[in-house]
Every structure is written in C-alpha cells, then in structure tokens.
Amino acid sequence: MKKIEARKLKGFADYSGTTMSLRSQIMEEVRRAASEAGFIALQTPALEYAEVLLGEGGETDKQVFMWEDNGGRSVALRYDLTVPFARFVAENGNLQMPYKRYQIGDVWRAEKPQKGRFREFCQCDFDIIGADTLSADFEVILAIMKVLTRLNKGTFTMTLGHRDVLGGLLKVFLPDVFQSPNGESACLIVIDKLDKIGPEKVVNELSLISGATREGAQDLLALLQKRDGEGSDLAAIKASLVSDEVATAALGRLESLLDLVNAIDMPLSVKLVADLKIARGLAYYTGVVFETTLDSLPSFGSVSSGGRYDQLTQRFVDRELPGVGGSIGLDRLVAAFEELGVLENTKRAGVFVVLASQGLESWAFQAAEFFRAQGVLCEVSLKPSKLAKQFALADKMNRAYAMVIGEEENSSQTVTLKDLSSGEQHSKLSLKDALKLLKPEL
Amino acid sequence: MKKIEARKLKGFADYSGTTMSLRSQIMEEVRRAASEAGFIALQTPALEYAEVLLGEGGETDKQVFMWEDNGGRSVALRYDLTVPFARFVAENGNLQMPYKRYQIGDVWRAEKPQKGRFREFCQCDFDIIGADTLSADFEVILAIMKVLTRLNKGTFTMTLGHRDVLGGLLKVFLPDVFQSPNGESACLIVIDKLDKIGPEKVVNELSLISGATREGAQDLLALLQKRDGEGSDLAAIKASLVSDEVATAALGRLESLLDLVNAIDMPLSVKLVADLKIARGLAYYTGVVFETTLDSLPSFGSVSSGGRYDQLTQRFVDRELPGVGGSIGLDRLVAAFEELGVLENTKRAGVFVVLASQGLESWAFQAAEFFRAQGVLCEVSLKPSKLAKQFALADKMNRAYAMVIGEEENSSQTVTLKDLSSGEQHSKLSLKDALKLLKPEL
Question: Strands, DSSP E only, in A40-150?
C-alpha cells in the first residue's frame, strides 16, 4: 500500500507538552479576567460568507483563506475575531448594551510563515460595544494587563496612540495628502511600518504619496519620535494641534486613559506609555489604538493589540455602535516565551499504577478512581509488562509515586505506594491512608 | 453605502449565554477527566493536506470542505480529530507509548443541516495508542462516562459492539458477500442504518448486496435484534460463532469490558450494554465500537461514540500502532440538553458598580479590582447615566448587588452596597467589610 506522507501544511503547528500547557494557562487567565469583569463568552463560526469578512482589513484582505463551497457560496475562514463579532452584533439587535464579550478562537491568515508568525493562530479578544467612554477603553486594557501580569513570565510595555491625533498631525504636516481619498490611510500604513523599516525609509515612502512633501514627512517623523521620558512628547504634540478641536479632544482622552491606568493601585507587569506613531494596520480603528511588546524581546513585535472602532457595525446596519476591543495573540506570546526560555519544566506529579499481573485491572481502576475523584492525577499501566519496566515508565512519565497493585493488595483492598524521588515504600495502605500521603493538605 | 447582510452560513451557529456556559462546562469536565487520568492535551491544525484526511472516512469523504489554496495545494478542513491525530502520531516517531491524548476542537462536515446536526461542531476526543488492551478500551470509555455523569443533566445508555463479532456473523449468515472486496463494508454501512430505517429496509438493502440472500439477511437481523435483558443475546451470538476463533475472542473481549465496567464501584449515570448491531459509519474501526444516547431522548441519536482502530496510522507508516478512542459530540449533546430543557437559568450573581457622577472612575475601578481579585464578578457601569437607570441595568444583568460609588464614598474610600433581591442597603463600607457581605465564606 502506498504510504501518504504524514506532514502538516506550512505555517501550521501541532501543540502538546509544555507548549500546550502554557497555551491552556493563558486561556484560563483570559477566562478568569473576563468572567471577573463580566465579559460574556461568545463563539462564532470559523467560516463566514466572504463578503462579511472582506473589505475591512486593509492589508489583511489579501491574506484571507477563501474559496467557493459545494453550494457555490463564496466562503472564507475568519482572519480575526473582531469582524465576525461585528456581524454577530449587527445580526442580534436585542443585545443588552453596553455588551461585553470575550472570545478565544483560532484565526487564519495566508501570510508568509516566519518565527512567531503562523497561518493558524489563536486570539483571545475582549470587546465592549455600546459605550464610547474612557471606562470602556480602560476595562479592555485592564483585562489584558491582568492576563499578562498573572502569567508571571515577564514585563511588558503597552504603547498607546490615537487615530485622531495622528490624523490631526497628518493634517498639519502633510495636508495635501487628504486631496486623494486614500491619502490618509496610505500614510497610516507607511507610518505603521516605522519599527520594521526605520524612519529614513518611512520618510522616503511617505514622500511618494500624492500631495506629501519630504520636508513635511521629516518634520512629522521628528515630532512622532520625540520623547518626554518614556513616551511621546505630548506637550509638543499638543502645541502642533492647537487649532484642531477633534485631535485635541482625542489627545485629552488619551491623557485621561494614561492617568486612569497610572492611578490604579495594583501590581501590574505592564507599563502603559503614550506613543502617537502607533497606527495599527487594520483599517477599522477610529480612536485609541495600542500595541504591547515584551520588554526582554521587543524585536518579536506586538503580542497584544487593539483599539476603538466606532464604525465597524455600520457595514451591516445603520445603528451607531461604538466599540473598543483588544486581542492577545496567544500563539505569538507563547512563541515569545519559548524564545525567552521561560517555559517551565514539568515537575514530578501524580501516580502511576503498576500492575503485578493480569486480572488486577478491576481493583487497580477502582483505586485509581478513588484518587482521581480527589483531584490526584492517577495513570494506570495499560500494557502488561515486567514490574521493572513499569517502574521505569512511571519514572519516565515524571510521576511522583508508583502505586503497586499485586495479588495481596487486591485481596486486602489496599495499595502499596513508592515515592519515586526518595525510593521510600509504604506497603498495603488503605485508600484513605494512601490519600493522606498523596495529598497531605486534605 | 450599500449594506452587507449580517448573516451566518447555513449549518453554522453563534454561541453565547446559557448555551455557551454549558459548552464551557462540558469542556471543563473533559479537561478534568483527562488530566486526572493522565491524558495529555493536544491541538492539531484545522487545515490539513487533503490527502492526509481523505480515504479513511468512508461516507464522510463526500462531506469534507476542500479547496485549492493560493499556493496550489489541495487543502481540507478536518472532519474529525482522529485522522489528524493519526497523522500527528505517524509524524512523531518518538512519542512515549502508550500515548494518551485528549483534544477539544471544532470539525467541519458539509452535511445537510438539521436539528442537532451542524456543519461546524465541537468534538472532545480521548485516545490511547500503543496499547491493544482491555484496560486501554476501558480507560477511554470510563473518561467519557465520567464527563457525562458529572454534567448531572440526565442518564445515558452506551451500546457496545465489536467489528470482529459482526464480521463473524456476516461470514455465517451472508458468506458470499466476502467474494467482492467491498462486500463486508457495504453490509456494515447498511446495518449501521438500522435505527434510522428499521429492520425491513435493512433486510431489503442487504439483499441487494452481491452474494447476499434474503434469508441470510433475515436470520442475521433476527439474531442481532434478539435481546437478553437489556443487551444483545450474547449466548445466542456465541453459539453462532462457534467455529470462528477471531470472532469468539472478540466476543470474549467485549464481555470482559462489560464485566470491568459493571465492577467499578462509583456512581455513573451511563449504563453500558452490549449491542452487536452497532457498526459505526467510519471505515477505520477494527475492534470494539460504541455509541451513546440520552435515555430521555434516544431519537436524537448518538452524543458520544468511538472504538478501536488498530490500523489507522498504517496509511502513513509501517509501524503497528493499535489505538482506541472515543469522542463526545459537544454540540449534539448541548442541542439534546436544550431540547430537553435542562439548561439552567442564570441566578443573581456578582456586583454592578453604579457611578453617581463622572470623575469617580478611578476609585470605582480600584474597588472593583479589589473584589475581582477575590473572584467576585464585578461589573463597572461604563456609561454615564442617571442612578435609576444604572440600578435598572444592574437588575437586568441579574447582579446580586449594586455597589454605589458617589462623592462621599470616593473621598472616604468606601463603597455602598445594595442587595438587589432584598433592597437592603449598607452604606459606606470599607472594602474588607463589603467583601464579608459579598463572600461570607471567606
């Protein structure tokens, strides 16, 4: 029989072992932060009508997995969780507002696979719609900060910008780009690449946009890169925006958000700083935008980002539904932690049940279930083999104890426990006495 | 601007509210049953090379979502978690055997949508490879039984068959169908439809298979439907198989498994009974097979099924890797529970933080985070509005308490708590005193 090659698609990965444990831990912290703040769990389909997904993602549209299904429908795999969420909100007119939801789910993008970038990756999103307030922005950012803090694997910097401030600055320094309909978004896409390609190339690329001047681009970049302490020089930016009410109000909102985060009296391993050059690639953002990098691995890029999108549902319905959302890129974060080598090695834990002969399965499982019900990991030997081989397997599996079931244990309804670190053995214990050893805290 | 219709694809669903809560609860019980027995979490991609997935599923092949990606690769969405698992095992030659994994994940099948049948649905799989033993079969079945029991939403019957016993019976009653290469599997596919189309139609369809006789089909059906108590009449079946060693051994294995389950001394709301007419549609099963129905809704069909597949990895590699697995159809189970009306209504819980005026956000969030850190659901009002409106929202959200933050509470760093059931109010409590009310058990 001709064999089929057992292989995965490029950009796709299997997860198990310590990587999977860390993924599960992050998901657990996301669920915790969400439920303590009243975010409701939501799940939407992986597949949507292509027209529902396309047209909002700017650069992302090209990366969508899309095809015609057997029924002749143009379908696509979601490339984020935000656009399907907007579809959900538009489809369900009776949601109690403000509506807070979180979603953990895989998304797909046919981008070039590289370190920390996959074609299938998991995102953890927090979103609030129906409230265009500072509190809503803060609630989303706080939830993300708590998740990252509780992982206890490193410190982060979250940089905060605002689309309207950046738009205001473009009006000041590159006013003529607004004469063409896509001029502003073309500038944003170029500015968004600053960290990747550096200021000189950004100036070059901006100068090529219709209506832009090299001088204006240089002045803009100089201002965007000016620092006051760790963040953007907000006083200098404010001075440039003096005649622009919208941009000045946006800057005020951003400053209030910084104040609110700085005032909260809790240990956070995420520092929020203003950085007005943050643009974000996705076209749907309209207000604050943010990105987050690991302090010890900034080159890895953003592991969590988001922003305010006040018009997203308007593609579907006329109702005005302001929204704000943030996403933790679970697989990028895991890849970054792996790069840093902060994944924990598994410690000895649980019990491996060794069977001295066949026919003892019934008592072995009976005993195992007693301990499992108490939350003790209890693995039963599944293949008849010599005792020494079973002990070796118990050791290899990193179990803390071997529990031997022989004829005597079977007839006396007891177990024999061997501590695999110390070698100490306790013969023919009742299940209750064995539990005292396995879980002294009970 | 032309609006895009906010709609989902047929056969796809959004999940939130009580449905999502139940889904999360089932997943949590799957994780618990898995981790206490040492099943390792695994995640494989949703997308695979089409050739990896096709050719094993029999009837299922036609339902695979498949297309050519931008790189010209023939790709497909997984239709189950078992075949990708076989690919994973074949690709990773160094796994410690026996290898026990569980996986929770969505799968996709382009089948006709109907009640309880979706085109995207979540499966929870337990599999053990590298051990062709009774214990391995039992461990998988026990894990599923524990999950279903702990949900505490109904009783179940798990019917147990064996491919080799059914094969043996076919050799006795319809010996000539084995003259054509697909004769046996054609018979299995027909017998598998017994519950749906009834015995007469099965006899008719079997008679049409090359080599089959109407008389043989009738005798076979009569034997398969004969009952001894609740299960198949194993004595009568054994008598028919007397000269067939393989089938007799298979029947012995099935009886031992029944004995092992019946001997386990723990409360289980799943009853295991022999039913040798169980065939299962998927082509890869080779040993025991099982299906599970809700006792109060048998017409809904199987909510959990599985079996032994000793040759699955042989499509990829020559190594012999016996396996056994079982799957809980999470979305079918949820749909069945919904049909039965056993989903719980949400009870009053948590706190809604009412803000008397603007500018109090900082203390409001500070207080909220104090309670959240203790596991109290604490939702902060996100939109400035009149007090009465905020109280009404708190009530609508089914919160147990409203926590009022006004100027006085802000300046004295206190909170005012109002019990939304009794109307009782406790003014200006310290955070610690408020916590005593919210979590008396602390």
Answer: 40-41, 47-49, 66-68, 74-77, 99-108, 120-129
Taking CB atoms and an 8 Å limit, are B37 and A1 in contact across chains? no
- The pTM score is 0.92
Which two three-digit tokens encode residue A155? 């410190």
Tell me the pairing of strands A351-355 and A378-380: parallel
Answer yes or no: do B36 and A378 touch at CB < 8 A.
Answer: yes
Domain A351-438 superfamily per CATH: Anticodon-binding domain (3.40.50.800)
From the list B16, B266, B314, which residue is nearest A41 (CB)?
B16
Rounded Cα distance between A223 and A209, Å, is 19
Taking phi over 0 as left and psi of -120 to 50 as alpha, with beta for the rest, A345 belongs to beta
Q: Which amino acid is at B161?
A: G
Interval A79-90 mean pLDDT: 94
Which one of B1, B2, B8, B66 would you mutate to disrupt binding with A, by most A Cβ within 10 Å of its Cβ?
B8
Residue given tokens 């780009």 in the structure block: A177
Shortest distance between the Cα of B336 and any Cα of chain A, in A, equals: 19
Q: Among candidates B441, B442, B439, which has minimal Cα distance to B376?
A: B439
Name the residue in chain A with its Cα closest to that of B54: A4
Residues of B in contact with A100 (CB under 8 A): 379
* A40·B16 Cβ contact <8 A: yes
| Non-local CB neighbours of A72 within 8 Å, separated by 6+ positions | none
In sequence order, the 6+-apart residues with CB closer than 8 A to the CB of B235 are B228
Per-residue model confidence as pLDDT tens digits over A290-336: 999 999 999 888 999 999 988 888 889 988 789 999 999 999 999 99
Considering only CB atoms, A12 lies closest to which of B42, B45, B67, namely B45
| Facing residue for B377 by CB, picked from A21, A35, A369 | A35
Q: Considering only the beta carbons, identify the residue of B20, B47, B135 that sits closest to A12.
A: B47
Q: Specify the CATH number for B9-136+328-344; select among 3.40.50.1110, 3.40.50.300, 3.30.930.10, 3.90.1150.10.
A: 3.30.930.10
- Which of A1, A2, A3, A9 to mutate to test binding with chain B, by most B CBs within 10 Å of its CB? A9
pLDDT value at position B56? 60
| Alpha carbons B74 and B63: distance in angstroms, whole number | 15
Measured between alpha carbons, how far is residue A271 from residues A125, A166, A251, A295, B257 in Å? Answer: 20, 22, 19, 10, 58
**Which residue in A6, A52, A372 is closest to B90 by CB distance?**
A6
Give how far B412 is from chain A: nearest CA, Å: 16
A8-154+296-343 — its CATH code? 3.30.930.10
8 Å CB contact between A401 and A382: no
Question: What phi and psi, each to the nearest 5 degrees, are found at residue A323?
Answer: -140, 155
B382·A139 Cβ contact <8 A = yes
ipTM of the complex: 0.91
Q: Which residue is it, tokens 């792996």?
A: A338
Verify cis geometry, omega within 30 degrees of 0, for the bond prior to A98: yes
* Residue A199 reports pLDDT greater than 60: yes
What is the end-to-end Cα distance of chain A in Å, rounded? 56
Token pair in block for residue A437: 């050893």
